[in-house]
User: Fold these one by one.
Assistant:
Number 1:
Amino acid sequence: MENKLKVAFICVHNSCRSQIAEALGKYFAGDIFESYSAGTEAKPQINQDAVRLMKELYDIDMEKTQYSKLLDKIPAVDIVITMGCNVECPYLPCKYREDWGLDDPTGKSDEEFKKVISIIEAKIKELKERLKS
């Protein structure tokens, strides 16, 4: 069994977009890559709207297996995906990186949240296909 690639989803706070990406990465692409998330600042808890909507949409309880953490708490990774934090984007050494340019839905409506979640789902599936080939 060859080692799976490790993918880190990174944003400043590691409480919302990167957590959703970690959860959906595990859910949709766990057979292809390992998912991690981290940020340059940790929050005491994952965004509660994100937690609620992920339960509602996918029956995933992010608080069971995930928590907000700093970059030095994850293993060395092959791929870094930044969520769209412009100049503040944390740097992590990796073989490949890309930015998904997602707006932070924190404090916005469920509709906005669901939009971001569905974009993340599509991007995870697309990443999985690219890494398969």
Note: The helical segments are 17-29, 48-58, 62-65, 110-132.
Number 2:
Amino acid sequence: MAYSKTEKNIQHIAEPVIKAAGCSLYDVEYVKEGGIWFLRIYIDNEDENVSLDTCETVSRALSEVLDREDPITDAYYLEVSSPGIERKLKTPEHFMRYLGSVIDVGLYRAASGAKQLTGVLKEYKDGILVLETENGSMEIPQKETTVVHLHFDF
């Protein structure tokens, strides 16, 4: 998935603030929902266990920087959170980090009779996911996916 110009700009602004809090930037989303703009910043750390206090600290610091830099002209709500246990996988770094993990893949068009697949991410190269499912190995172009995220059994 490609990031918009605004999202790329926010990444550049947000990374030093997030790094100063001992975390890393996992993802940025700038989306309009119900007529309201949301800037969602997902932060992570080594043990993938970001606390609410850390999110609040980053949110306050980032809010100050965003007010000063003013990279977005529209009114928006800033949300800072962990990507969670069912985190979305969007970038090559995300896919490489979770090789060998069970993932859920949503598809625009059905493959093997389904628009939702679950399997082990065996490989990721040049925008192609290699997924090992109960029906065998499949190659899925990332551009044909609606969403990819880590699978979690409740």
Note: Residues 53 and 59 are 10 Å apart (CA to CA).
